[in-house]
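Good day; I would like, with your permission, to put a structural problem before you. A protein sequence and the structure tokens that stand for its backbone fold form the material at issue. Thank you for your consideration; the sequence and its tokens are set out here:
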Amino acid sequence: MKPSLAKGTRDFTSLEVARRRYIINTLQKNFELFGFQPLETPSFENLSTLTGKYGEEGDRLIFKILNSGDYTSKVNQEDWENKSHQKLTSQISDKALRYDLTVPFARFVAMNHNQLTFPFKRYQIQPVWRADRPQKGRFREFYQCDADVVGSESLLQEVDLVQLYLKSFAELGVSVTIHINNRKILSGLAEFAGITDKLIDFTVALDKLDKIGKDGVVKELLERGIAQESIDKLDFLFNQSDDALENLLQLKEKFAGNETGLKGVEELEFVITQSLNLGVDIQNLVFDITLARGLDYYTGAIFEVKADEVQMGSIGGGGRYDNLTEVFGVKNIPGIGISFGLDRIYLVMEELGLFPEGATSKTEYLFANFGGNETVEALKLIRQLREKGVSAEMYPEAAKIGKQFTYSEKKGIKNLVFLGEEEIKNGTVTYKDLEAGEQKTVSLEEFLG
């Protein structure tokens, strides 16, 4: 039977692994420059920890793990016969693969808050799993690279995270635009239009504007039971200017007496203004009033990062989630975090040819195998190179030199080294630079540098 991969998963070649490490190392360096400390959590959590945190759709995409042993032995017969999947799930599964890194982080904070120093800043780079439909840039197993701060309500955290995004992507060579909104503004809009009870329906439809256009959004709003009168009040949303601060000023006027909406405008105005004061180009930071991601737990700022030169979904996102630890019985621990989409960033960089030559992992020297005493002397020299941090290996068999050349070329090894009887006698080393096609004989001291 021919082997195959599970849908939505991938193998990674040595080249791909090296390039992914290049991205991870860049992000990790910047996380630590900004004061974040590393954290790792288990690949699976109690199912009760994850469910109810991502909304109905998110709960459906959680990979459940069957209980060990005969998981059907304690199943209610009536539920089994009625195929009641919701009731059956809790009877046959009490664990699940983590859906993201934020909820496990909130669980960690809730369990350890008495030992943590607040504000607590952590970064986490680990895989997550979602039973989603695979498509370009979307996989069922993928890495998230998160940076979160808990224990601070200061809006300077939002400003700092904008800087972290832009610095990291600039070092990777990816030109991006950060789209930013505020949950309080969305709540204020619902209040302004008299549809507070339809907040979720309103924002879900509005979030699709870039995909289905104004007519599509209006149609969906009507289908979700929102009156035409309310939709007319919100018509200005479809005619935003390119000036973020001008759009916020317009909202201020419409939110007169709307405490929640005005608070959202005030917060967003601070983040944008301070970011601009720190040298952020206004073109890189866009107030996107239709942005409504993660509404089930975001309470303030909402971020989404998009690549400027490649048609791809978001390559980063996050927001403020001041109430998340409350579901674990711990109150008053505000938080905010952002995530980098490693897999999508990889696709963007690959499409644009942004990986530097140094991002690949290659052996520097391959020693030709002549057998006998020459092999012993070559192994001694290889050991000295490795002690100096230089990668080197020996061809395993004393094969024809042509075969050893071919191996070296296919592996992309730059130098083929010849340490034969003559070189050993003279204390020299002969090596050929396969890229330049040049061959040199140098003293042993010069070769070892």
Notes: The chain has a mean pLDDT of 91.
